[in-house]
Amino acid sequence: MRAIVVVMFFAALAQGALSAELAAAEPQCSSLSQGELEQRIKSYTARPSLSRILAADSLEILLQRASYSDAAALWSVPFYLVNDGKRVKRFFALLDCDGGVELSRDQWFKPK
User: Fold this and answer.
1) CA proximity to 109, closest of 95, 94, 91
2) Are 55 and 1 in contact (CB under 8 A)?
3) Which residue in 59, 57, 34 sits closest to 45, CA to CA?
4) Within 10 Å of residue 73's Cβ, how many Cβ atoms?
5) Which member of 27, 48, 106, 110 lies 3.0 to 4.6 Å from 90 by CB, making a disulfide possible if both were Cys?
6) Can you point out the beta strands (E) in the chain?
7) What does the DSSP 8-state code read for residue 57?
8) Does residue 74 contact residue 30 with C-beta atoms inside 8 Å?
């Protein structure tokens, strides 16, 4: 019985070491620069398929309010669509470590 417990202990220990090695080999998504975040958002929002939804004069990306979630391995970056110098819509860009981008519109945002 003790032999089985010892073998199970070392198997669990080896599994933990393997998980640590795999985690160390993954790219550090949390270290993306503000420039990289901005470039990924601009590249995604420039897609022709989004031109009707994101019709605006410009984007105002709030990089100082960007946040990273370790639990989800994901960046959240708020940005505004600007028309005639006024913020008309607010979105949150969700950027994952694999290069994926999703947009979430803030339904409660009221233009001033």
Assistant:
1) 91
2) no
3) 59
4) 13
5) 106
6) 58-61, 67-69, 74-83, 86-96, 101-105
7) S
8) no
Q: Using the 8-state DSSP alphabet, how is residue 23 labeled?
A: H
What's at 78, amino acid-wise? P
Q: Between β-strands 86-96 and 101-105, what pairing exists: parallel, antiparallel or unpaired?
A: antiparallel
Q: For residue 21, name the pLDDT band (cuts at 50, 70, 90).
A: very low
Model confidence at 4, pLDDT cuts 50, 70, 90, reads low
The C-alpha atoms of residue 102 and residue 62 are separated, in whole angstroms, by 16
| DSSP reduced 3-state for 92 | strand
- Phi-psi domain of 55 (left: phi exceeds 0; alpha: psi -120 through 50; beta: other): beta
Given a contact cutoff of 8 angstroms between Cβ atoms, the answer to whether 61 and 75 are in contact is no
The structure tokens listed for 78 are 């708020």
- Residue 8 reports pLDDT greater than 70: no
Instruction: Single out the residue of 97, 100, 101 nearest to residue 26, CA to CA.
Output: 97
